[in-house]
Structures are given as C-alpha cells and as structure tokens.
Design goal:
One of its GO terms (biological process) is L-amino acid transport. The protein has helices at residues 53-61, 106-111, 123-129, 131-135, 146-159, 176-191, 203-209, 230-241, and strands at residues 15-24, 27-37, 42-46, 66-73, 76-77, 91-94, 164-168, 195-199, 212-217, 220-226. It has 243 residues and is of the alpha/beta class. It has a domain at 15-94 and 162-241: 3-Layer(aba) Sandwich (Rossmann fold), CATH 3.40.50. Bound molecules: adenosine-5'-triphosphate. Adenosine-5'-triphosphate binds next to β2 and α1.
Length: 243
C-alpha cells in the first residue's frame, strides 16, 4: 500500500478541473465535477457503473458534444483549445476499449500516433518496460491477448510525449498475473515522474498505485481522500460504489 504522507499542497496542480459540466447530446451527465492532480501523483476515480467516470476522462480530453467549466493544464485553460490540440499539452488518453488496430503489427500500432510533446519514452525504453511487446513486435493486433493489448495501448501513448495519462479501467477482464504486471508498470512510470489519472474498480490494484481516491456518484464528485484512509472509508465505499 502507498502510505507515504501526502505532500504539502503549496504547488499548483498539473491538471485542475473545476466545476466541470458535460453533456451527451441533451443528456446532462457531469454536474460540477472538480478534481486536482499534482505532478507525479496518481489518482483513481471510483464510483458505480454510470457514475460518470469515463465521461470525466472524455470531458477532459474534449470528447463530449458539450462541456463547460474550467480545465487547466499547468495553469493553461484548455476549454477553448481545439480538441485536436489537447494532446499537445502533454496529456494522453487510453480508453477502456483500447483501440488497437487488428490488422497492424505491434510496432505499427506503437508508431502510429505522432509525437506531440518533448520527452516521450523511446521505443527502446518501451520495449524494456514491456518485454512481451518486444517479443511480439511483428505480430498483428488480432493475435494479442487482452493484457498485451492493454500494454500496447498504454505504450503507444507513452511514446507521444504525454506526461499526464488518463487510463480507463486498465485491468478490466485481465488475469491476476497480468493485473500485477500492469501494476508494476504503473509503479515504474510513477518513478519516472509520470502523472496518472485512473478509473479503476479493482481496489486491491488501485491501492498499490494511487495516492488519492476520488469518489463519484451520479455525475457529482462526492469527496477525495488519501489512500492511507482507504480502510477507514471502506464502509462508505461499499455504500456508494457497492464493492
Ligand atoms: N455515448 C453516450 N451517450 C449518451 N449517454 C451516455 C453515453 N455514454 C455514457 N452515457 C451515460 O452517461 C452516464 C455516465 O456514464 P459513464 O460511462 O461516464 O459512467 P462510468 O462511471 O464510467 O461507468 P462505467 O464503468 O459503466 O463506464 C451514464 O448514465 C451513461 O448511461
């Protein structure tokens, strides 16, 4: 468990979301969501199915039909930035469905997104971090296991130069040994100073990597607390999330 004392919050968050509202068409889904994410920190959004976790990630990336509120990266307001320029602020999104191109090889999938910011992780480093991707670099996407697809989806974003990575349910449907491997990779990325925003239902996994938990319900952010408080919050989480 990550029980390090929370660092004093005198610095500015790398990602700051204030009073974010989001819509799918006419359907108002996010109601004033706020969160802050500090450089090098990992936070996890938790909540029932339909609470608005994925929508929060999509709203941050500008992938909703309508959003209102404040989203700042390093103090720069992103709401008015065109969607195709969002990634240039050094933020990357790994969606739940992973989006691996079945007919392309591992390496082609990896090289597909352009580099959008300085300091991306090199292909050599990526293959060092994910040795099974190196072994399978010429295999087509169709031949990859779910775990390999998840690693490739993450690796592909790391190469772009993103320093803030939004990861939607990275362990969903994966065997325990692969979940463990993904946890180790995320801890490696934390050591490299990456800033991570996870959506995750697997608490045992999340407590290993997250510094704080953010609890959502019905499109609202209820509260956040450090991972050290997770045990004392379990009854509340059972009530809100149904774990
Ligand atoms: N493309 C869409 N069009 C319309 N409504 C949507 C769409 N996607 C999600 N919703 C609705 O938005 C609300 C929030 O969904 P969201 O996917 O963000 O929840 P979640 O907390 O990520 O849960 P899950 O784990 O089930 O994905 C739900 O009521 C859902 O039905």
């Amino acid at each position: 468990m990550n029980s390090a004392a929370p660092k004093p919050r005198t610095d500015r968050p790398l990602l700051e979301v204030r009073d974010l509202n989001g819509w799918y068409g006419e359907s108002h889904v996010l109601h004033g969501v706020s969160l802050d994410l500090y450089e090098g920190e990992t936070i996890t959004l938790v909540g029932r199915n339909g609470a608005g976790k994925t929508t929060t990630l999509r709203a941050i990336m500008g992938l909703l039909s309508r959003r209102e509120g404040t989203i700042k990266i390093s103090g720069r307001d992103m709401i008015k930035v065109p969607v195709h320029k969002t990634a240039h602020a050094g933020i990357g999104y790994v969606p739940e469905e992973r989006g691996i191109f079945a007919t392309l090889s591992v390496e082609e999938n990896l090289m597909l997104p352009p580099k959008v910011a300085e300091g991306g992780i090199s292909v050599e480093e990526i293959y060092h971090l994910f040795p099974n991707l190196a072994e399978r670099r010429n295999s087509p996407g169709t031949k990859l296991s779910g775990g390999e697809q998840q690693m490739l989806a993450l690796a592909r974003i790391l190469r772009t130069g993103a320093r803030i990575i939004l990861l939607d349910e990275p362990t969903e449907g994966l065997a325990p040994v692969i979940v463990q491997r993904i946890g180790d990779v995320l801890l490696e990325l934390k050591k490299k100073g990456m800033t991570l925003l996870l959506v995750e239902q697997n608490f045992r996994f999340a407590r290993k990597v997250a510094d704080r938990f953010f609890l959502m319900e019905d499109g609202h952010m209820l509260e956040n607390f450090p991972t050290a408080d997770l045990d004392s919050k379990m009854a509340r989480l059972r009530q809100v999330v149904g774990v």
